[in-house]
């Protein structure tokens, strides 16, 4: 699931991010990239809180619906638009079976060791980065 986000920057401020389909969910960052990375975490945390409180999670609308919503005209003004993936951290792990070329697997293991990570932690981190970027 992906949510449309608005990014704004006022003079002498950081980049702010908000979600028209997720009221109350905001984030910020010193750069656009940092703001978007932080928005991924903010969206995940916001949804986790909604679910914990038993509140419904709003469905995301597509870009055309956001762009044509007259109630968002003021919000869209001066804002950049991006798409932020919802990555739900469920708090549990699942064992999977994947196949890699042996050379790639050796490179993954070597890099994970250099970083003090397990293979699983490295692959999860790489997957998150790929989903967000």
From TrEMBL:
Domain HicB-like antitoxin of toxin-antitoxin system: start-end pairs: 3-127
* Pfam families in the record: HicB_lk_antitox (PF15919)
Segments crossing the lipid bilayer: none
Q: What InterPro entries does the entry give?
A: HicB-like, TA_system_antitoxin, TTHA1013/TTHA0281-like
Give the top-rank taxon of the lineage listed in the UniProt record for this protein.
Bacteria
- Identification of the protein by name: HicB-like antitoxin of toxin-antitoxin system domain-containing protein
